[in-house]
Write a structure and sequence with these properties.
By secondary structure, the protein is mainly beta. The chain folds into two domains: about 210 residues, Jelly Rolls (Sandwich); about 270 residues, TolB, C-terminal domain (Neuraminidase), CATH 2.120.10. It contains no helices and 42 strands. The strands form eight sheets. Strands 1, 2, 4, 5, 9, 14, 15, 16, 17 and 19 form a ten-stranded mixed beta sheet that branches. It has a ten-stranded mixed beta sheet with strand order 3-8-18-10-11-12-13-21-20-42, with no helix packed on it. Strands 22-23-24-25 form a four-stranded antiparallel beta sheet, with no helix packed on it.
Length: about 500
């Protein structure tokens, strides 16, 4: 049932709930009461002062704001705020007034460390063109980044802070709020600011937005709260902003592109599914009797065959090849466990990780089946192999030198050499189609195995000069990027991030 928001601030703890009447406004100098909020101010440098009007009879805020932008390393906008501590949930219906303004004028629900222009922040941002995203500056003076929602022009938005993590929810007119996907992690000190903001995206303009049914909940942090796992399938141009393609409760893993770049394959609950980049519900990929599919799968160079790791029984992983449009699976490897990782560019050879007599090593085998060939024999674990686009090399990760790093060898197993050596552990190397870049999943160097649902990074290594660029920070690890993840044109990457959302989060209202 939808609850009519009250003009109060709900302050919650594990022991009691206190309805606290709002304090008098402390605006830039003096002004009308601001309901849930304490004050308002122009953040950053603006040409035209902003303003706010509050109607207590409808609990509505009309905010006028100028400002050049809320992005990069500094912001300029009008902000209506309250200082709080703890976990926070802010929800509102948002309407940007007028037509013909800047496409990226925006109205936001914001949680912000300070009123400095370069402060760390996270917000749920609705743009004039309907683009909706969670945006953030992770540290003071840093550059902003965002995860774009797959939902355009929602009516109702929510931002929530749980510990160091920030999430957003969206809803169209008449819908219930649903998790938008993605998250940001920011370590804020208490107290901090929460409120509503408007930016014109043009220093010469003033834009207006109306926020109604505003609901603010502040609660004591509860680290022991039960959580629900969500998976967000994301893509982004390199470099560029992250975009949500699909969100689902539970765990999905290992996105891999179709050869036309129009869809992504992923695994869920032992099955392979396919979702279009344009959205919609995923459809199952028929794999016949080869069920219990693991997260290691990928299409042949011609896009007609799908290699999967699975079988008819769990924990007996073998490699199968099945026509993408359906048909009987054909078993390739005789021994188990075997985990597929790549096709040779000519489609004649598969490279995989095999566990034989307790030792994890790298093997190749003809795609039609036959004898397997062991390539990597060095001490330690050797895993996640993938052919270079020209077929000359096989890249893989190995801990033979102490920490997990990327190595490569010639396709026959000779000439093994280390590729990465830095302050991180580096896993799951994937080469761009032109062979010039390599994306890896990086984490703390002390990690002895690929993390699960931990803070990790996606980093791109430029192979010619060994320059490294961090392109995404996320909660993930195992399952995030286990299949070839570059789009066929080499412009985009796909991965899965994970969100552990406390079940105690307020229900949709």
């Amino acid at each position: 049932m939808r609850r009519t928001p009250l003009p109060w601030l709900l302050v919650a703890s594990s022991a009691l709930l206190v309805w606290a009447a709002p304090k008098p406004a402390c605006a830039q100098s003096a002004g009308p009461a601001l309901g849930l909020f304490e004050g308002h101010t122009d953040v950053g440098t603006v040409l035209h002062p902003g303003s706010v009007g509050y109607d207590p009879s409808t609990y509505a805020y009309q905010i006028a704001g100028s400002g050049d932008n809320m992005w990069a390393s500094a912001d300029a906008f009008q902000f209506v705020w309250r200082k709080v501590s703890g976990d926070v949930t802010l929800t509102a219906d948002i309407s940007i007034l007028g037509t013909g303004g800047e496409a990226h004028r925006k109205a936001v629900l914001m949680i912000r460390q300070s009123l400095d222009a370069d402060s760390a922040y996270a917000d749920a941002a609705l743009h004039g063109v309907g683009l909706t995203s969670i945006q953030a500056r992770l540290e003071k003076g840093g550059n902003s980044s965002e995860v774009q929602s797959s939902v355009s022009a929602p009516k109702r938005l929510r931002i929530a802070k749980r510990g160091d993590y920030f999430y957003i929810w969206v809803a169209a007119e008449g819908e219930e709020l649903h998790f938008s996907g993605g998250s940001m992690r920011i370590r804020m000190t208490e107290p901090f600011y929460v409120g509503l903001g408007v930016c014109a995206h043009n220093k010469d303009n003033v834009e207006k937005a109306v926020f109604t049914k505003v609901d603010l909940v502040v609660s004591a942090p509860n680290p022991a709260a039960r959580t629900a796992l969500y998976s967000t399938l994301e893509t982004f141009p390199v470099p560029g902003d992250r975009h949500v393609t699909y969100v689902a409760p539970g765990r999905i893993e290992a996105p891999a592109w179709t050869r036309d770049g129009a869809s992504l394959l992923f695994s869920r609950n032992g099955r392979i599914e396919q979702v279009k980049m344009t959205g919609g519900e995923p459809q199952p990929v028929p794999t016949g009797s080869a069920t219990h599919s693991d997260r290691f799968h990928g299409l042949s160079p011609d896009g007609k065959q799908l290699a999967i790791t699975g079988g008819s029984q769990p924990n007996r992983a073998a490699i199968y090849v099945v026509p993408l449009d359906g048909g009987a699976p054909r078993r390739v490897t005789r021994q188990s466990p075997s985990y597929w990782h790549g096709w040779s560019p000519d489609g004649k050879t598969l490279v995989f990780t095999g566990v034989r007599k307790g030792k994890t090593d790298i093997y190749t085998i003809p795609a039609e089946g036959g004898e397997e060939t062991r390539l990597a024999t060095a001490q330690g674990a050797n895993d996640n192999p993938e052919f270079s686009p020209d077929g000359k090399y096989i890249y893989f990760n190995s801990d033979r030198a102490g920490s997990m790093q990327v190595w490569r060898m010639l396709a026959d197993g000779s000439g093994q050499e280390q590729v990465t050596s830095d302050e991180f552990s580096n896993w799951s190397p994937h080469l761009s189609p032109d062979g010039r870049r390599m994306v890896v999943l990086s984490c703390d160097k002390s990690a002895t195995k690929l993390p699960t649902d931990q803070d990790v990074m996606l980093r791109v290594l430029f192979l010619a000069d060994k320059r490294v660029q961090t392109v995404a920070r996320l909660v993930g690890g195992e399952g995030s990027m286990d299949a070839p993840s570059w789009s066929p044109d080499g412009r985009r990457l796909a991965f899965v991030s994970y969100q552990l959302i406390p079940r105690a989060s307020p229900p949709p209202r």
